[in-house]
Amino acid sequence: MMLLVGNGRLITRGENHRLIENGCVAADQDRIIAVGTTEELRANYPEAEFVDAHGGVIMPGLINAHNHIYSAFARGLSIKGYQPKNFLDILDGQWWTIDRHLTLADTKMSALTTYLDCIRCGVTTVFDHHASYGGIEGSLFVIADAAKELGVRTCLCYEVSDRDGEEKMKAAVKENADFIRSCQNDDTDMRKGMMGLHASFTLSDSTLALCRENTPDGVGFHIHVAEGMADVYDSLKKYGKRVINRLHDNGILGSQTITGHCIHVNGIEMDILKETDTMIVHNPESNMGNAVGCPPTLEMMHRGLLVGLGTDGYTNDMFESMKAANCLHKHNLCDPTVAWGEVPQMLFENNAVIGARYFSKKLGVLEEGAAADIIVVDYDPLTPMHADNCNGHMLFGMMGHDVVTTIIDGKLRMKDRELVGIDGVEILAKSREQAADLWSRINA
Ligand SMILES: [Zn+2]
To answer: Is the pTM of this model over 0.85?
Structure first.
């Protein structure tokens, strides 16, 4: 089916970044075939279905480079006796407690609600990091089914950890390997797999070796790095080296590997990340919420490291993450002049580069040949808006739920805030039931 999305301010991104007044984008099946003005494209493709942007902003779908579907049912949950004093207490008392109770049914509903919210926030590609030690086998397949049902592009992994014993660790490695293999036999370009790892301090050298043996060529790892100082102390104490050095020595780094956070990394570790072309994903709101410190994100970017932006399960709204990153780095450095360029670069340019390391179609850009991942934001600027200042308009003028239309892989998933072919009310009703059930099991 051919689609035209027009009658709006169109922002292309990419090498030929432009803002086209009364712009329009044409998609044939899953790819963009033309970008121009509404008049031009309507004349060239008179038979195409026309999606009216009603004067809003037409832009590429957003990419979330680090999310946690399994955290969905934490919203509003109160766990008996949970009074965390530090980051490890938060992990063990909340996140591991939740994931130890997650069944496949819980995982399925967490995934449906998360992808639903992603569509509503204009996020068309999600890199997820999953844990459900209550139901490991098949969990990535259940999530992939939910992504397929809702039509969201996704790259999944299961977080391998020694924290629940050897048998479960091995089941987690197998789940990654099985899923990666299934993705290699899938030519839709809608789902990809990685080898997920929790964090250095819950992974022995022998577990890392097992993960490496089970990871096919061309596939990397997705791991949390030095999110808390406990991860650094553990690595120094047990192995006599810092986290990045340890991961490097274990063959975990490389251009296909995503390291989340990298808060407590020093200059030598940054050099290693750069030499190995390893990806880093910054999750500002989560870092502030967990009170784990501010990563040296801007320095990493100035050194030429590839840093993308995620949410770490805190939200599915990438505009929210952008706002948090903007304030965090200004606040941290006591310098209101910083972060203006770096934060949009993370979200728009670097997340597209990260996307390109897993998906074949070009993501994060509206240009001929790119994936037909297109969103419309309900936004009418109060000041002049052009290609060079559109990031300022996004930072101060847009929220995820201002997205009114979401097209993924050439298919309309939401139009004028109405979901298309998706019963959102039913998904949320079932999700509340499932969450209540999970909560009662957690507090039993
Ligand atoms: Zn995370």
So the answer is: yes
